[in-house]
Amino acid sequence: MNNFAVVTIFLLVLAAGAGVFFYMNYYQPLVDEAEKIKTKIDDLERQKAQLANIEEEMAQLKAQISKLTEQKNKLQMESNQLNTVVPKLLDSTETIANKFKVKFQDIRISPLVRAEDWSELPVEMTILGTFKDIGSFLTIMEKRKIINLAAGSMNVSVSAEVDRDSKSPLLSVTLSAKVYIMGGGY
Length: 186
Description:
Layout: H1 3-99, E1 103-109, E2 113-114, E3 118-129, H2 131-143, E4 148-162, E5 169-182
Antiparallel strand pairs: 1-3, 2-3, 3-5, 4-5
């Protein structure tokens, strides 16, 4: 064999060894590192998609919270109005009844009926008095807009009792009317 062939084989073995050395020490670690980075990028992309979904869910939850807060505020306002309207209604009704010598036998306040810009409170009362006193009582109640008699009904019957002063029979009037509360509702 000649020196040229030996040198060529030696150079080929040396080149193959250098290639294996380069592959094992430089190329394969770079490929492994690239795979790790690619896996991390995929994980980060998945996390990014999850964060986008979470952001959408948070936006929806904020909208729901806002809507529920608005409903809560309306219900609180309505409750506050109801808590002030009913005592005022009873107080003013009692004052007018005392002024005209009308006696209450019964008063019932039904649950609130809600509408968009207002609510109505059905009221049923049974009162006892003379024709003149009941007529004056109802006239003042309607004029002061305490109750709306046009939106209700009235049942009149003669009572067995007699007025002490005029000796005329007392009337028993069962009245269904409505009280309107502005700003209530949904």
